[in-house]
Amino acid sequence: SKAGYGLLQWVVAMVKYYDVAKGVAPKRARVAELQASKEAAEENLRAITNELKELAENLEKLNNDKEEQSAKLSELKEEADTMTRRLTAASQLIEGLASERTRWTDDLEKMGEVKRRLVGDCLLCAAFVSYAGPFNHGFRTDMIDKCWAAQVSDKEIEKTQNFKLQTLLTSDVEIAAWAGNGLPSDELCVQNGILVTRSSRWPLCVDPQMQIVSWIKKKEEKAPLTVKTFNDEYIKFLELAIQYGKPFLFENLDEELDPMIDPILEKRFTIVNGQKMIQLGDSQLEWNEAFMLMMTTKLMNPKYTPEVMGKASIVNCVITLDGLAAQLLNVVVGFERPDLEEMRQTLVQQMSDNRQVIKQLEDTLLRELAASKGSILDNDELIQTLNNAKAKSIEIAASLANAATTSQEIDKTRDLYRKVAKRGSILYFAMSGMVSISEMYEYSLGSFLGVFDTALREAKPDKIVDNRLKNLREKMTQTMYDYTCMGIFEMHKLLFSFQMTTMILDGDGDLIAREFDFYMKGNTSLDKIKDPCPFPWIPEVGWKDLQLLKQLDDSLRNLCEDIKSAGDEWRAWYDSETPESTEMPQGYNNKIDIFKQVLLIRCLRPDRMITATKNLIIAKLGDYYVQPPSLVYDKIFEKSNERMPIVFILSPGADPQSDVAKLGDTLGFSGTKFKFVSLGQGMGSVAQQSIETGYQRGHWVMLQNCHLLTSWLKTLEKILENMHKPHKDFRLWLTTMPTQAFPMGILQRSLKVVTEPPEGLKLNIKQSYAKISDADLDSCDHQAFRPLMYVLAFFHAVVQDRRKFGRIGWNVSYDFNESDFKVSAKLLNLYLQKSFDQQEILPWETLRYLIGEAMYGGRVTDNYDRRILNTYLEEYMGDFLFDENVKFFFSRSMHDYDCLMEGNVAAYQQAILGLPINQSPMVFGLHSNAEINYYMASAKDIYSGLMAMQTGTGGDSGGMSREDLIEKTATDIQGKIPKDELKFIKDSIPTPLEVVLIQEIERYEALVKRMVVNLADLKRALKGEIGMTQALDDIGTALFNGQLPGAWAKLSPQTEKPLGSWMDHYLRRNKQYSDWTLIGEPSVFWLSGLHIPESLLSALVQASCRRRGWALDKSTLYTKVTVFTNRAQVTTKLLDGTYVEGMYLEGARWDMEAGCLARQRPKELIQVMPFIEIIPVEANRLKLRDELPTPVYITQLRRNAMGVGFVFEANLHTKEHPS
Predict the structure, then answer these.
(1) Directed axis angle between helix 321-336 and helix 380-416, to 10°?
(2) How, if at all, do strands 1206-1213 and 1187-1193 pair?
(3) Could you give the CA distance from residue 210 to residue 331 in angstroms, rounded to a whole number?
(4) Terminal alpha carbon distance of the chain
(5) 628, 508 in Cβ contact below 8 A?
(6) β-strands 1115-1121, 1149-1151: how paired?
(7) What are phi and psi of 740, to 5 degrees?
(8) pLDDT tens digits, residue range 399-456?
(9) What's the whole-model pTM score?
(10) 1138-1141 and 1172-1178 strand pairing
């Protein structure tokens, strides 16, 4: 049933429940047990967890505490380390700075002093940079130390005592860097370095020795530097330099600057959009502040205009004697003791490096100190720098101590060679001073150093140092003498030798400046001497000189009285042929030294000054220096090289072509290997091609007559500069007459050789026969040809050698040369052969005319010179040559100059060898006095040459400064100038003679006005009130030298007088004009006192023509010598003509008793003529017999080639044949 089934189901369920319950109950019990265990465990867990949490919290708290304590520990440790480090740093700083403390403390004090004196120092420095550049070292020193420093002190402006420009304007480090680039370290060069680098205007350096330009090129070579001349295409390069801020150098400037660079010189900037711009030509360029412009010139004494000097900073870089000596000392020591020189250079470099290192470290230290932020003790770099500085300073201090000791030892050894270096410097300045005599005597420092080096190598070695030094000095002097003599004319060799001697004496302290001044000028005083000349044989000028000479030294104090007391003894000495080697009266040879003896000879026997000067040179240096070396072409070649042109400076009658060609043949340079180019219009390109071919292939090139194409020589200079690796065999030979237009660059780099025709008849005839062969003599069959060839050679020698006698020889100097001789020889050959072929007599007249009038006479412009030529030919050429009864002699003065009638060339050459080397003037048909004139003219050339070579410093015999003497002389002249103006006014028409007076007064007053203005301006310029112009400077120099200023000479009658004599002449002119104006025409005119004496003569003829009705063009005048010598003897004035005085006779004597010309007496060179009567006459009535037409000249210079100087022709009575 459902119920049962349900009950069953229930029972079954209960059974199952029981079964389950029976199994579950233990489990439940177990569960309960486990639940209880679990709860107990959980409770336990909760307790442990709480405890653990509590422990974790404690642990965290402890960890936090630990970390906090650890951080504190680290912080304390770091602080301890920092303190330790700072303590160490502080110790290092204290120790490091302690050594600097004293120096820095002193520096601080000094800087305080410097700051206080900075205004005065800066004022001096600014003045130096602004104004001192153009002046030499001595003048700069005087300006700064004496003038400006005194003015600053007077204004009570503080300045440093013994202030040195270098301390403010540069530094030792910079000077050392300059020296490393080749700038010598002497004071002048350092000053020039300052002026070049510090001036606000662009520098223009006067640098004839090229030291500054070499330094600039080396200093700026890495920039890079652009070098151009104004002759180059430079604009594009200059524009680039301006835009990119590069240095630019113009070298080899002349006295004119290219106006194109004016905007740069004047810094004409414009501001465009905040940028500086400059206009250069058509281009507007951006200006870079780093741009530098420098300019240099090789000219020794350029005359720049005030405009140029305002735009550029002129820097005088001409080397000084002491500066060059210092440089040469390095060269000598470097050669003699290379170890010592190397040690010195190492020392200099080391000290320079040390200074630079110290400076860099000091700068770094100060920079770090200034830039340091926070604690100074934490700046490790600063500490390290300080440690380095300290270590380095200790090292450098030790090094400096060693260096000081070593430097003393080196200097002690170097001092031994100082005299050698000084001698070298003196020789260079003696040599370079010759450029004052001729522009062709231009020498560079580079060429001098080459010769200097040769002398060092060739000097005789010696183990004893003193002997070696003596050998060095002697060899150096000889080598330099030989080198210089090779490039100067014969007439200047003694001048150079004497200049060299006096400079050596001056360098040794053995030359008294007042005595040397007297040697050059004599007594230049304007005052009249109070003590009259006691004897007529003493020249007036000589007696005036003696008045000054006796004041020069105590040993000469009684000289004038001694001469008066022993007149006969002194006259005997005066009359001796060679007073310079004759014992002087009254023991004066022992009383005075040789230089004073020369001065005494200058006063009494000026004609013997040349020999006396030679004796002085021999006594001081040796006879080597009065015997110039002869020209040897092999030696010329040895001294030359492929980059050094050989310049032959020619004199009339000399031609080196054949000698150079002969040398070329010997050395294998002939034919195509030796190219001759004669320069002239259009030959420049041919010459250039020849040079370019020659230097590439190693040929020789000779350019002849360079003076005929001077415009092309600048191109030649560029060709020589741009030659790239010329062949070692290449040589360039140049020939030129002396010319101002010859480029200095070529002269400085060249080997100069002067060629002159031989001096003396013997050498001249010998040279002529050296170029004659037996074939030449055999070319004519006439027996007279050989002797006539010798006659022609003798004549050729006479007309050439006569030149040495100056104006007594020829009125105008002519260039007789070898071509005259050759063509005349051909004419002889032609006419004698024709005479032989046609059996005719010899055409003497034709030969004399062709030779005397056409060949030699073709060069002659003066009629009186032509008269001499023709007289010679009349005396030498004629049938008398072959007169068997009377042997022919050219002259029998001191030697029988005869003519060999036959023989070959060798026979004639042998006969020529028998001729004496020196000839009496009588061989030339001159009086022996002509030789005196020659010697006196030579002595005057030496005086004027020495004055030209002086540098313009020094004082006069009284010890005054140059400026004081000039001012005194100017004041003396001002006191002598007449105060009243000369005037001649006439209402009616003036007579011809009155016209002459009016014209003369006009000219005289023009001179007076010029003198007044010049002297006033000169005195103001000396005081600095106005600028010293070149014209005023020339006048000052002339007054200093006792000479007539050129500006006055132009407004005066032609004269050769010194200033003192000219002033007497000037005042006497005033008296003549004044008397003429007030009293009327004088009975005797002083012809010498007229500006244009010809005008008086013309007026006399004109007046007589008017009075007598003669035709003016058919009237002339003749002269008659009177017996009057004093105006008091003339009682009446001539109606026609006049008497004139003031004329002197040269070359003959007027015999007052016989009333005719006579031969001169010995030593009487000039005679005052008696009054001469000038008589106007109609030309057709004038018949003269036994009269010699004698030219009248204004001065002893006679006339020039244009005829200026000739006045008129006087007629002097003579009883002898005109020849």
Answers:
(1) 90
(2) antiparallel
(3) 18
(4) 211
(5) no
(6) unpaired
(7) -70, -20
(8) 777 777 877 887 888 888 999 999 999 999 999 899 889 989 988 888 898 899 999 9
(9) 0.79
(10) antiparallel
